[in-house]
């Protein structure tokens, strides 16, 4: 793994375990096992580091989600399959870091564009899933699905309660299917 990748993974871990305030150059370099000079060579500013950490997380998340989507069963079992996929990929400090970075983007114009690209990627992914399930006008419904899954992730992380995803997907599908 390259120093750059080690730095990004350490940044996500720090954010997930201790919050964005824990992301100092020294703390990230120590957690990544790289020199301070290496960190500043790859990421001259905190905004660069945070933007790239969010981008890296999103790209990896999309790859994992896409793999799980390929295993979806026929529409009668789709909500349960979606729930399994969501729970399988939404574990660990990286998921907390993802939500923290989106919140930070609301206050940081430098991160906002990456956050927008992230949400748009999830919308495209949701559109593909809804389309495969035969939902009419999937582009219109995808943002609601993504918002619901973000909300459920926040609930899951805050309470430890992993129930509700399949029921929420069923509810949305009932409203969207003819």
Structure in words:
This protein has 178 residues and is mainly α. It has one domain: Tetracycline Repressor, domain 2 (Orthogonal Bundle), CATH 1.10.357. 78% of the residues lie in helices and 0% in strands. It has nine helices and no strands. The protein has helices at residues 3-18, 25-32, 36-42, 46-69, 78-89, 93-105, 109-132, 138-159, 165-176. α4 (46-69) packs across α6, α4 packs parallel to α7 (109-132) and α7 (109-132) crosses α8 (138-159). It is elongated and about 60 Å long. It starts with a helix and ends with a helix. The model has no long low-confidence stretch (mean pLDDT 82).
Terminal CA distance: 49 Å
Task: Quickly count the helices.
Answer: 9
Give the overall average pLDDT.
Answer: 82
Q: What would the CATH topology be?
A: Tetracycline Repressor, domain 2
What would CATH call the class?
Answer: Mainly Alpha
For CATH, the homologous superfamily is named as Tetracycline Repressor, domain 2
| CATH architecture level-2 label | Orthogonal Bundle
Q: What is the count of distinct domains?
A: 1
Which geometry do the CA atoms define?
elongated
Rg over C-alpha atoms, rounded to the nearest angstrom: 18 Å
Biggest sheet details: none
- Assembly type of the chains comes to single chain
Helix content: over 70%
User: How many distinct beta strands?
Assistant: 0
Helices and strands, in N-to-C order?
HHHHHHHHH
Q: Show unreliable segments.
A: none
How much strand content do the residues show?
under 5%
Structural class: mainly alpha
């Amino acid at each position: 793994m390259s120093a750059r990748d080690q730095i990004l993974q350490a940044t996500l871990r720090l954010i997930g375990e201790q919050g964005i305030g824990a992301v100092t150059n020294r703390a990230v370099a120590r957690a990544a096992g790289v020199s301070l000079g290496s960190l500043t060579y790859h990421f001259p500013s905190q905004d660069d580091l945070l933007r790239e950490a969010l981008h890296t997380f999103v790209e990896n998340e999309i790859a994992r989600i896409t793999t799980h989507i390929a295993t979806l069963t026929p529409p009668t079992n789709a909500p349960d399959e979606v729930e399994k996929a969501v729970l399988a990929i939404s574990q660990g400090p990286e998921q907390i870091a993802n939500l923290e970075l989106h919140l930070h983007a609301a206050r940081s114009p430098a991160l906002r564009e990456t956050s927008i690209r992230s949400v748009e990627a999830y919308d495209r992914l949701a559109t593909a899933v809804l389309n495969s399930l035969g939902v009419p006008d999937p582009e219109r419904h995808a943002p609601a699905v993504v918002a619901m899954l973000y909300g459920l992730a926040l609930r899951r992380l805050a309470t430890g309660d992993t129930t509700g995803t399949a029921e929420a997907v069923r509810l949305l599908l009932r409203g969207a299917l003819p």
